[in-house]
Here is the input.
Amino acid sequence: MTSTPESPDHVSVHLTGCAEETAQAVIDALRTPFPQGAEVIPARPQATGGAGHPLVWCTVVDTRGRRRSTGIRVELREPVDAGLFGAADPVHQVIEELAAAFGVEERGTVPGEHELEVRLRLTPLPKG
Here is the structure.
């Protein structure tokens, strides 16, 4: 599933394999480093869940005005699969911020002419 961001500074984030509370925790973790208000929208299901129809939580992150996070770990109750879509530099900025809050395992990258698609697995960071 791909989505075209609104501008080169926007990154589309799609979260699957998790409950609404977990998706919201990931989106909330992106609000601090990327405070461009209107572009970070609340998690919303894009499709109804059910057998064979996974629930997808989506948001668009505007990377302009990035404030680097202070490395605050965010509690996850379960692992989350994340798809990031956008220009390479903004996508890498979002990955850096996710890595400050969660464990991040890259599951694949698909480069395009003007866009990059990255699949990640987000997991809770070890305590300590």
Q: What stands out?
A: The beta strands are 10-16, 44-45, 56-62, 80-86, 103-111, 116-123. The longest strand covers residues 103-111.
